[in-house]
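Example record used in the benchmark description.
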Amino acid sequence: MCGITGWVAFARDLTCEQATLEAMTATMRERGPDAGATWLAQHAALGHRRLAVIDIEGGAQPMAADTPDGQVVLTYSGEVYNYVELRDELRRRGHAFRTASDTEVVLRAYLEWGDALVDRLNGMYAFAIWDARAERLLLVRDRLGVKPLYLYRTADGVLFGSEPKAILANPLAKRRIGLNGLRELFAYSKTVGEAVWAGMRELKPGRLAVMDRSGLRERTYWQLEAKPHEDDVEATCGRVRELLDDIVRRQLVSDVPQCVLLSGGLDSSALTGLAAQHLTPLRTFAVDFVGQTDNFTANVLQDSPDAPFVKDVAAHVGTEHTDIVLDHSTLADPAVRAAAVAARDIPIGLGDMDNSLYLLSKAVREHSTVAISGESADEVFGGYWWFHDPGIQRGKLQPWVSGPGGQQSVGRPLLRKELRDQLDIGTFLKDSYAATRAESPVLAGEDPHERRMRQISYAHLTRFLPYMLDRKDRMSMAVGLEVRVPFCDYRLVEYVFNAPWAMQTHDGREKSLLRSAVQDVIPRSVLERRKSPYPSTQELKYVMALQEQVEELLNDRSNPTFNIIDTAWAREIVSREPGSLNRVDRLFTERLLDIAAWLGSHRLELHLT
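Model output (structure tokens):
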């Protein structure tokens, strides 16, 4: 795992831009704490920060291959899990390898197959290849978008980077945000390819881009397709298990310490059980909060604390387990919030859930460099409660904003009224979801309910999942922790996407296929546990700390936050009893503080007309 950046310009000599390239590269020091390097030619400049995971000595980048017609140079982030098989095939085709790294496999795969190498890779990755033979840049992002990659067109070329901060370190990139960018910040739904900053965008998952003297061109090399599902329930569960066994085995390849992030839910428990078959001893880590188990109060989303289930899994599997226990003052620390916002580049977080994920990652990094996570199982297997609500299934808004909390969120007076009217978030959300449903593949002859559930699954995999993957990537890579996500293997995603919804709920519960596939490797308590979200602290002292920080903010009338935030709403939040603030109130209070931290650290231009 690493951070990449670069600059292609056909109307200037980039060998004179060493300082700018180094500044771009340095913004991603946390993504790659082990090493950093740059490579420059007349019209191309590539930067790399390395987190060494495979072939510690031999995987340095940018990596170049000399050919009779010029150099081919790669800057690469991520992991290719089938690199051993690809290396064997390339050797049979006459390639000699200097290293044992997957990086060199990607480089030589390009030399052998050109752009068609994308069809052969299985993994999470974002990379750039400068081919001096044709003065041509190739940019590639993995199928599900696990690894980020941003683009910014210039008059004579393109800037790119793993994170916006790398691009914004170049003087050519303007720190501007317009109304469309603000809609992305406050609509609780990710428009695939958008990046909030004016002029910047993401390379979409499953796409490649080519930049040469004739311009920038893109094409899709992978996307979800609707296909008939021929297997019965038993065979489907068997195939899911077969895929998971192979995926976990592949993703445990590493030359550095590994662990599993264990929450006590079905997803992470399943991966723990499967990983233990290949890695002994297996280390697991969980996040918890001081007093959470003893003082837990059930709510509509979570009916039990995580800790007892974590303990059951650790005992059942036999892991070396560690709880990372956080107190309210650490969670509410403005420095932690500032670090989390800086990691994401924009204030679109999930409050204390982002702060705790950042702190968990930081603590885990002291013991492991690679962590396995259950992220994306809910999107792949239909785990969220709203998948199973008939009213939400028929709704005209994204399912994750169609429930009571989401509807409250859309109508909240967080922003000044004139800005809310300009943004018109409600219409934006309806139009966005209508476009997503229209884009979803369909199967001829599918009954209306099956078709609607396919559309809902598609929306989650292409709109909600990218948001969650970006969150996990940013919070973990901000402390140099590589997080692997086995449930994002495209083979598994394709297979489950085409299993009929009736089959995906064959036992009358959420994630039926996953539960049936892994029932032999997890304890019964977890097998029977209701879906539980990522944990959030219930400590009222945390809420009180938030209110105190908002009050301090209100006393600073020069703060740019109040150019966009409704001060009357902020005062009302401060005046209320901490126990009267529900989850949505609290999340919006945290969002206000995120915005303040963000505006305080950026010299940006807001274009509100």
